[in-house]
Amino acid sequence: MKFLLLVIFVALSQKIEYSGMIYGMLESSQLVDKVSISRCHLEMSRDFTRISLEGLIDDSIILAKQCGWNSAAKTLLKFRNNPKSVEKASAELYGFILASINNKGQALKNDGATIGKIMEYMIAELSPTVVKFKADMASIKSLKQSKYPIAVFHGLGDCCCFPGMIEFTRYLGKEASTYSKCVEIGDGSAASWLMGFQKQVNTACTNLKKVSEFENGINVVGLSQGGLIARAVSEMCNITVHNVITLGGPHMGVMSIPNCESGFFCDIFNDALDLGVYDSFVQENFGPPGYYKDPLEYNEYLKQSNFLAAANNEKSINADYATGFKSINQLVLIEFTEDTIVDPKSSEQFGYFKIGSKKDLLLYNQTEDYINDWLGLKTLDEQGKIVFEYIVGNHLQFNNSEIQRTVIPYLI
């Protein structure tokens, strides 16, 4: 009997309450906000010898459902059902989790926060607007040094802190033998969703001017939504911009708002859209609605658009915007041939639907914007300053050789 009690005691002593790790992970990965975390405290114990990343994710899903955090539960389930992502995360985090658990739960919330920061990118990586670029430094040619440093702007839901953007920015700098920096427009990936687009541009301008290396002019590279920011920099930032290169930038707007893939802010964003994409509150406080453009509601777009209608000089002519845009030395517009995110994909090269139609697509030089030269697109075209490049594949699907072909020549 004494032996049996001893076995039971030993078994029980191996169980630890590790809910703190789960809460730390959920908060740090931006799947649940601090306020929600403070309102729901549940305990969960596990035998520390059997804890794994897969189990941690499964238990996180259970807690998220019990606390009513549906967006977090849905996101984690999607991640859990992607074997490659889980395998990659397990390999990277196995040792850290093991060390944390063997520490007998002394700092599990902090350990969970560390796991969450790593998981944030791995979860975001499932989104088609987040860059998965891996630089092949051995392929760098560095044929010529660029005269200008490079400012890079990421896409929707991405972050300068994510590995893909870090690799991409570093790679451009190495290829062009110059200073290269990813410029953030807010605090983490949520800002690209939960910040009005004009405010994102204003913040970009402020942050650019803080970088001493950019004082004498820059080349700007923008990815996806960041392509619009890159172009707006030439119009609105009062900074010398040499070349503007955009990969999948929705310059003429989109007919559908991209899905919010992960994070508590998706609930906020989706609830806000119920007010209507042209609602003044939505336009001023959320990113993608700022470049939504319905050709069947063009007059409402002109009246309510908080960013794009003004940036394209469709609402009224802003001479400063036109002057800045026309001062670009070279505008490089890269379209992804199989793009399923930017609707229509021709927007990536200033094409769009004919006003009043959702079927008739116009090339860049057939739109009213071009014909009337409201912004200066026609002027740049007649001066031979517009370059059209293509990458075969879906949104932001590119590798080293494609960047060497479509981007690097215009940086050096």
From TrEMBL:
Keywords (A to Z) from UniProt: Disulfide bond, Glycoprotein, Hydrolase, Signal
UniProt cross-references to Pfam families, sorted A to Z: Palm_thioest
Enzyme class per UniProt: hydrolase
Annotated signal sequence range: 1-18
Native source organism of the sequence: Stentor coeruleus
GO cellular component: lysosome
Recorded coiled-coil stretches: none
Biological classification of the source: Eukaryota, Sar, Alveolata, Ciliophora, Postciliodesmatophora
Protein's UniProt keywords contain Hydrolase: yes
Protein name according to UniProt: Palmitoyl-protein thioesterase 1
Any GO molecular function: palmitoyl-(protein) hydrolase activity
